[in-house]
Amino acid sequence: MTKTPILEVRHLYKIFAPLDFRGEKKMAYKLLELGATRQDVFEATGMTAAVTDVSFQVEKGEIFVLIGLSGSGKSTLVRCLNMLHSPSRGEVLIDGEDITAYDEAKLQELRRTKISMVFQNGGLLAHRDVMGNVGYGLEIRGVKKEEREARALEMIRMVGLEGHERDRLDSLSGGMRQRVGIARALASDPDILLMDEAFSALDPLVKNDLQFELLRIQEQTGKTIIFITHDINEAFKLGSRVGILRDGRMVQLDTPEKMLSAPANDYVRRFIDSVDTTKVLTVKHIMTVPGSVIKKTDGANVALNSMRTSGVSSAYVVSDYMHFDGIITLEGALSVRDGRKTFEEAIIREVPFVRNLDAPVSSIVPLAAKTQYPLAVVDEHDVFRGIVTKASVLSSLSV
What we know:
Layout: E1 7-16, H1 25-33, H2 38-45, E2 48-58, E3 63-67, H3 74-80, E4 89-94, E5 97-98, H4 104-113, E6 115-118, H5 130-134, H6 136-140, H7 145-158, H8 174-187, E7 192-196, H9 204-221, E8 224-229, H10 232-238, E9 241-246, E10 249-254, H11 256-261, H12 266-271, H13 283-286, E11 293-295, H14 300-310, E12 314-318, E13 324-329, H15 330-337, H16 343-346, E14 353-354, H17 365-370, E15 375-378, E16 384-388, H18 390-397
Parallel strand pairs: 3-8, 3-9, 6-7, 7-8, 11-12, 14-15
Antiparallel strand pairs: 1-2, 1-4, 4-5, 9-10, 12-13, 15-16
């Protein structure tokens, strides 16, 4: 049985038209279906096709990113997902229900309980303190003061603002105000969080911190997040899948890795030219199988033979269940064979290793630069999975 996506968009259009041009809509649709550009449609009908025939699905717990230049239709599209803009044609399904058919009462309930939004400017209430802003949505829903303040405090702690509950907004930095916006959106415990250019106005260091915090919060809460940005590095850092919009149309929807390796066309290729590949490529993409792996019970002669046949000067030592134990060098194995050391004494255990196969390559560059040996890679159970050499790290830097 196929799993139902939490959100599905089917053949969505949003056409803005002056009131006295309404009769031209059929012509606009026909032109768009024939592949006409947004400019062609405007010149022929006077209408602006902000979103054209966009379809996609979002799975529960996914961070799905929409990216495009100014005017690409990304902000219009995200506002169709909670019906701040009514689509001109098409469907928006949440948990299998088409919300384009909802009346105003059902839409208000949807926005209060199922889907929240964080804007670039935060959309916060200047006359309220942090606690008052975070608890505002719950107050509107009629939640009792004690309960809503407890929930607000929980969200304030989650976004790292503990101790600022009674601070005025004008005393907070831009990054702190965005944290307030995220906390307010999460307070109502929505299934879906929409974030429209939420970090775009922040300086790079603050933006980087908030990107990390968002990933942490998503991991902790399991929320489905639809994130809008014009920054390709931000898109690839946050998104499990990324959709690129151009003039209202989806030109490619894929994982960052697939988009890098197989851009759909020259526009996508140019769009992703500025990507820092070390933030997209992960440890699992560049790790290799070491030439020599031995069990701790094998002994010095097996280690020496393994190194000789593999043409290397060190071997990776594993214990039961492939748990990584350390490295034994050629010199160490010879000292064991000659009786100067025991096998246990010859194992070098102070070896840098990586315990996250999904860590971006950029995060291990400093570690790889200072270590004498290739980095061992283990999983969350300390099972040895492979190695990362300095050469593979350097190669990824030049991609």
